[in-house]
């Protein structure tokens, strides 16, 4: 503003300033009520100090009762109540720990937010339902993962939340696991880097981040009572490596320990997992929060490394105080627990940037949701260039099945984001399936306005086949619903959908199958259809994204973050390891006072495939998958050449050999020297290379030494095995045209 303009505006400015002051005074109690207490001046508010120094200063100010109050929730009832019965200041969602206003300690307002912020409907709020995280991972794009995390973080902050319970990173060891859609695939390095990028960006929005469920919570069946037996090396090089990378990349403020037992101890009182590996070896400085009702003791858990019980106070409320007073839990340990919580809050800037509510940017949310979906849909089969569809040349299209007239499927459980405007298939709710209002049928009509696009629900196979026969092209939508709390009994499509696809394919050779699933499915009809697209649970703009892929407005770039098996017989455990039926006395309330009973019978499962998770299993056992890890087609083609390798770097050329612009995900794998005893290759680097038609680029990728190491159980440490390392590069774990070697000192 120039001086003249300033003079002209002065009286108005003064008026505005006064009005703003009056308003600020009037609003002050209101904002305090919403968890923004006025900042008390204390030395811990000095931003030049480190989060650790600030946390130490604050711990000194706290009484014993105040310390304890920061380490537990106050019961399921409180968070499960409707908006009218919430405790003062609680926003409602999964968890609430009141802060301490006299010292300016913020409330921990926790929300489940794996694929977007949950529990919006009951409060009349807006949150963007994003494509599931397995979809985001199929983009292999850490930049996109950052956008995904930033969006969720911003929408949490908009709504006044201060902590996410997202960050699911249990690896896909069991492809029938009901929560795979909330996780990041089967490879620890891909999963670790994608989750790490997502959580870092989320924390930049001043939200405490979380990684879950630590650890070996790779199936839902019997999840609270199953004792997972696995060797240290197997865990360190698979599941735990994913957590290690994500924790280091993101500096996540919290790690949620899981329900299950690992080698005899509950994960939330497991000294090996929490103290020795997470806190000591990974150098994790945040706090360990229990999964909901996954705490089983006071002193044992606290001394093993658990810092916070949620959502109850049964172990970390009064019993923790007693345990501290009696010396069972040393005061120094209690102080460390509190320090970790406060440190995480300082580190994300929660003290300096208290919640700042606003109406979420719906437009931005929808734009990101569609972009992520477009980057995550994997083209699995495209015989004779069936896709993309040329709208101008097609007169009639049959759209069949999976409520494609109404919307797209969502995954279920605590990661399920409420659909904008309500369930697109209301008969399926309130406890059934949830569908987002993004109709693929409408979107296909928009892409092909001149064509006759007819819909058949797919309930009557003959009717669907007749429509397919009368149309130029048939697009069959199929789905595989999955949810927290339950695993799939098989990878096969449920409810007669396989027969539907076969009947349609028999009626029309131009049959395209679009899959909405949380992970791999089997495809007995694969040889009879001309094209297959894996759309995962594609979120609130999924219909539009699918149509844009089908008509080539978006060129597919995504690749599989999980192996698709030909049949369950090829899995490490052809039969899922279910909990045995309850014996006498095993049926107990789920938590003290819970109105429902569960089978509490403990049982062991042996993850004897060890570190042979996903593609490593298929490689080591010489099995042919249906579609391998890292695989995905595009509407253009790529070639690879000129590999140069050293222990620190890999360089090669990628060329777009087709006629349209695209982006190739280039993958680098290493096979370790024979002495390592690992008869398979492992992903060690990847990048996404945008390329115009005919364009080539030189790609140079750093080789992270840690990703080449093995875990030596005897030495309890990582080491590089001396000998020859083979490096391969290409477009999928089973299509690696480039090969080179280097030696590491012998
Ligand atoms: C789930 C967690 C979730 C928590 C709170 C648990 O049942 O396993 O992933 O964050 O509930 O809703």
Main sheet summary:
6 strands, mixed
* β-strand number: 29
Overall shape:
globular
pLDDT average, as an integer?
Answer: 93
Question: What hetero molecules are in the model?
Answer: beta-D-glucopyranose
* Share of β-strand residues: 15-25%
Terminal-residue CA separation? 70 Å
Fraction of helical residues: 25-40%
**Classification by helices and strands:** alpha/beta
Gyration radius (Cα, Å) is 27 Å
| Tally of contiguous helical segments | 19
Main sheet: which strands, in order across? 10-17-16-15-11-14
Summarize the topology.
Blueprint: H1 3-33, H2 51-59, H3 64-69, H4 76-80, E1 95-97, E2 108-111, H5 133-138, H6 142-158, E3 163-164, H7 188-203, E4 210-214, E5 226-229, H8 232-237, H9 239-250, E6 254-257, E7 261-262, E8 265-266, H10 271-281, E9 287-290, H11 299-304, H12 318-325, H13 331-347, H14 362-376, E10 378-382, E11 396-400, E12 408-409, E13 435-436, H15 440-447, E14 452-456, H16 461-469, E15 473-480, H17 497-507, E16 511-517, E17 531-534, H18 542-550, E18 587-589, E19 597-599, E20 603-606, H19 615-620, E21 638-645, E22 649-656, E23 662-671, E24 682-691, E25 696-702, E26 710-712, E27 717-719, E28 723-730, E29 738-744
Parallel strand pairs: 2-3, 4-6, 5-7, 5-20, 6-9, 11-14, 11-15, 15-16, 16-17
Antiparallel strand pairs: 1-2, 7-8, 10-17, 12-13, 18-19, 21-22, 22-25, 23-24, 23-28, 26-27, 28-29
Helix pairs in contact: 2-13, 6-7, 6-14, 7-9, 14-18, 15-18, 16-17
Bound molecules: beta-D-glucopyranose.
